[in-house]
Write a structure and sequence with these properties.
It is a single-pass membrane protein. This protein is mostly helical. Helix content is 58%, strand content 2%. The chain has 11 helices and 2 strands.
Length: 248
């Protein structure tokens, strides 16, 4: 009896140890692959091309195309590139005020905005606010799409640093206003102005510009041409800020 107890007590646990070793190896491999997937954006894509070249398509356009194909629909892209000098200064001012009020002064990140977004997310218990700057939004639109994940936010941050380093602020806002989504299949300020108001982007009024700016968080749901009440209220706020700053 005594010998049996000793044998049972000293029975090796090799299978359990082997399973734990496999688990930790698999976990290490997953972490390594995830880190490599994020860190590759430190060198890819070549953002220096954007100094002069216009992007032919974007990750968001291709995402929307794929979403349409998945439900058997044809996706028609409406997008006309225009230089910044052919975009109303009212729109430039309204968009920067509504989306990234510190755009001209920061280096890709708005720390106060990120802290405010974090607070709101914690209060709601979900990702309700992103706190992204225009530079981060440009990175998302050009290269990443709208997936909500920590890895996408990390990639977005890396790309934002690279974009700020490679491009001037005027070039960043020019790119952004030419690729951002403003409705189903509508991309860029020129097509947005024509689709919603029947004018060229250069001729947008302050109120039209403010309407376009405030629908950017959800441009496929909210209409700039026939805005719901809360969009009209936000438009009034943006116009008031523009007027107080002597921008209109």
């Amino acid at each position: 009896m005594y010998r049996k107890n000793i044998a049972r007590r000293h029975k090796p646990a090799q299978p359990k140890r082997s399973l734990m070793k496999v688990f930790w190896l698999c976990l290490a491999a997953i972490v390594t692959l995830a880190a490599a997937d994020v860190l590759r954006y430190a060198v890819w894509p070549d953002v220096d091309d954007l100094v002069t070249a216009q992007p032919q398509t974007t990750a968001l356009i291709e995402q929307r195309r794929g979403e349409a194909e998945d439900v058997g629909k044809t996706f028609r892209v409406r997008r006309t590139w225009v230089p910044l000098k052919r975009i109303s200064p009212h729109l430039i001012r309204a968009v920067t005020i509504a989306e990234d009020d510190k755009f001209w002064g920061h280096e890709g990140f708005d720390v106060d905005g990120m802290e405010d977004a974090l607070r709101r997310n914690l209060e709601k218990g979900r990702l309700a606010a992103g706190g992204s700057t225009i530079t981060q939004q440009l990175a998302k639109n050009l290269y990443l799409g709208t997936e909500r994940s920590l890895s996408r936010k990390l990639k977005e941050a890396i790309l934002a640093v690279r974009l700020e380093d490679a491009l001037s602020k005027r070039r960043i806002i020019e790119l952004y206003l030419n690729v951002v989504e403003w409705g189903d299949g509508i991309f860029g300020a020129e097509e947005a102005a024509r689709a919603h108001f029947g004018v060229a982007a250069a001729n947008l009024s302050p109120e039209q510009s403010a309407r376009l700016a405030v629908v950017l968080p959800n441009p496929r749901k909210w209409s700039a041409r026939n805005p719901p009440r809360h969009i009209r209220q936000k438009t009034a706020i943006i116009l008031s800020r523009m007027e107080r700053r002597g921008l209109i």
